[in-house]
Amino acid sequence: MDSLLNAQGFDNEEAIQALRDYQSVIRMLVNDHATMAGYIRNGNEEGFLEIFMLDKGSKLGPPIEATNKLINGYQDQLTQQAEERYQAAMQNNIIIQVAMVLLGIPAIGLVLYKVNKDGERRQNLLKELAENNSKYLFNSGKKIEKITAENVIEGSINQLQKASDFINKISEGNLEVTWEGLNEENRQLNEISLAGRLSVMRDKMIHVKEKDNERNWTNEGLSMLGELLRKNNDLSEICDEIISKLIVYLKANQGALFLIEKQESDEEECLILKSAYAYNRKKFIDRKISLGQGLAGQTWLEKETIYLKEIPQDYIKITSGLGEALPENILIVPLKLDEMVIGVLEIASFSEL
Predict the structure, then answer these.
(1) How far is 319 from 61, CA to CA, in rounded Å?
(2) CATH number belonging to domain 232-349
(3) Of 121, 136, 223, 310, which has the highest C-beta tally within 10 A?
(4) CA distance 330 to 126
(5) Region class of 333: left (phi > 0), else alpha (psi between -120 and 50), else beta
């Protein structure tokens, strides 16, 4: 008990002595109760009643009362001391607050001045950021009516998100993606912006893809024709296969294959129609064209390809070997072997070749 009281800073000697008396009485009662419990266990009722009748618990009253009185007094003393310390602390706090107010008035003026200057600098910074957004991200061509931090920052985030989505679409193979808001009216304003450069990159990728498709298409066609030549030895069958496959491959409507030959009755060479194909059918047509005659003969003479997109109404019947229907596009190509023309291929289509 002494060590506990010392730890709590309890130094009232009179109260400590009262607690010690109280502790002695308690110990005596504890010992008597232990003895009484032993008598009960041993069946000694007389010994139990002898101690019980002494009523030693009545001796606890005076020391308890004295102890409580001393402890309450000590508690009141501690409460008074705590209140005095609190009042002193409040007075010190008021003094400090008044001093801080007096010292803070000049500081507030300085802060307001800096805030005003910072506001001007911040507005200039926002204006510069907005101009950079238009220059390097995307320029819609519209004047920015109100420049605020929220508008500028949100605009930057939106344009960067558009760029990210644009790049993701391209990486997924979607070359038809467009930058929202970019059109012919503001395209020149975005020559160096992110939107403009990404659009140019997409256009170049489209061009590369188209060229790759053209090369693949050409290689597949050449491979198909090479396979036809390897499989057949009969000239008539080869001509029929070539013209029919070409019409289907080119998605055309009509075609004719001429070879240069000299017939027994003629002294000069001429173009002989070897195979004709129209509307998914072979056409059995006999036709002979002299050098320079019509467009097929002119192609033979000049050794140059002719491509017509405007066809006269009577062209097919008069100058071509194809027959009746009037196409919208005609392609006439000389067939060469070591720069020597050996035949002419004529293709007609209702769509552009």
Answers:
(1) 144
(2) 3.30.450.40
(3) 136
(4) 62
(5) beta
Please report where in the chains the tokens 């790049």 appear, as a residue.
167
Q: What is the pLDDT of residues 183-224, one digit of tens each?
A: 888 888 888 888 888 888 888 988 998 899 889 988 988 888
Separation between Cα atoms, residue 24 and residue 30, nearest integer Å: 10
Identify the residue whose tokens are 């507005």: 123
Break the chain into its structural domains and give their ranges. 2-93, 150-214, 232-349
Q: 227 and 196 in contact (C-beta within 8 Å)?
A: no
Query: For residue range 275-290, what is the model confidence (pLDDT) as tens digits?
Result: 888 765 666 666 788 8
The continuous run of DSSP H or E covering 218 comes out as helix 194-231
- How far is residue 159's CA from residue 196's CA, in Å, rounded to a whole number? 12
In whole angstroms, give the CA distance from residue 315 to residue 98: 108
Asked if residue 305 has pLDDT above 90, the reply is yes
- Better-predicted residue by pLDDT, 316 or 28: 28
Please give the backbone phi and psi of residue 137, each rounded to the nearest 5 degrees, phi first: -105, -70
DSSP symbol at 186: T
DSSP string, 39-96: HHHHT-HHHHHHHHHH-GGGGGHHHHHHHHHHHHHHHHHHHHHHHHHHHHHHHHHHHH
Q: How many CB atoms lie within 10 A of CB 146?
A: 6
Checking if the pLDDT of 266 tops 70, the result is no
Name the pTM for this structure.
0.50
Decide if pLDDT at 142 tops 70: yes
Torsion 287-291-296-300 (CA) sign: positive
- Total Cβ atoms within 10 A of residue 245: 17
CA 295, CA 289: separation in Å to the nearest integer?
10
Using CA atoms, how far apart are residues 320 and 314, in angstroms rounded to an integer? Answer: 10
Pairing of strands 288-289, 281-283: unpaired
